[in-house]
Amino acid sequence: MFVLVADVVSKAIVVARMPGHAPIRLLGGLLTITLTRNGGAAFSIGTSMTIVFTAIAAGVIVYILRAARNLRSIGWAITLGMLLGGAAGNLLDRIFRAPGPFQGHVVDWIELPHWPVFNLADSCIVCAGVLVALLALRGIRLDGTRPIPEASSTQPDTSEPDTPEPDNPKSEYPEPQSAIGRQAESPDRAADEGR
Fold first, then answer.
1. Sheet holding 24-26: strands in order across?
2. Is 108 a catalytic residue?
3. How confident is the model over 4-56, as pLDDT tens digits?
4. Which one from 108, 143, 162, 188 is the annotated catalytic residue?
5. Which residues on adjacent β-strands are paired with residue 108?
6. Out of 7, 93, 122, 188, which one is annotated catalytic?
7. 104-131 confidence digits (pLDDT tens)
8. Domain spans of the chain, in order of start
9. Does the annotation mark 122 as catalytic?
10. Nearest to 60 by CA among 39, 84, 40, 79
């Protein structure tokens, strides 16, 4: 909500004060306040597709509002709040500003050296994109949980350990015990019978 209010108020001030006014250079030229209107996306890409960007912004807002029901993470709440405020701020321009409904041009007014002119909504969308990447890399979900690594499974290992083969492998068909006993006795019996 704060992002949306700040964006709407700052654009209203710039639109009321800047027409016919020379750009205002601040901080030794590091920041310049100027008024431009953008019919496209970031960096004035796709200026003939304003209606498409309006539909995309509306879709993003609907998705965020639906995803908000599962939010349990402060990081994701801040991130989606910034994204929602930024998308809503630019969507309002596209709906209500000239040249017509749902085809309006977004008011941009912040200029940095060697960078296209942007607004507060744009900067919040970019910051939210960076936060999305950081949260995803850390494995934090919308509900605040993290995926459980597969290596830390609690089930015991049931696989058979590899045992080395004995030096004298046993026959596939072992002899019965009685036959083994008779073989062991036979040398002694032969000696007894010979006496």
1. 24-26, 31-38, 106-111
2. yes
3. 999 999 999 999 999 989 999 999 989 999 999 988 766 556 666 777 888 88
4. 108
5. 36
6. 122
7. 899 999 999 999 999 999 999 999 999 9
8. 2-10+32-143
9. yes
10. 84
Cα separation, 139 vs 94, whole angstroms: 35
Contact 108, 118 (CB under 8 A): yes
> What CA–CA distances, in Å, run from 58 to 19, 64, 83, 84, 139?
29, 10, 12, 10, 27
- At residue 34, what are phi and psi to the nearest 5 degrees? -145, 160
Length of the chain: 195
Q: How far apart are CA 147 and CA 125, in angstroms?
A: 26
pTM over 0.85: no
Amino acid at 140: I
CA atoms 20, 41, 142, 146: torsion sign: negative
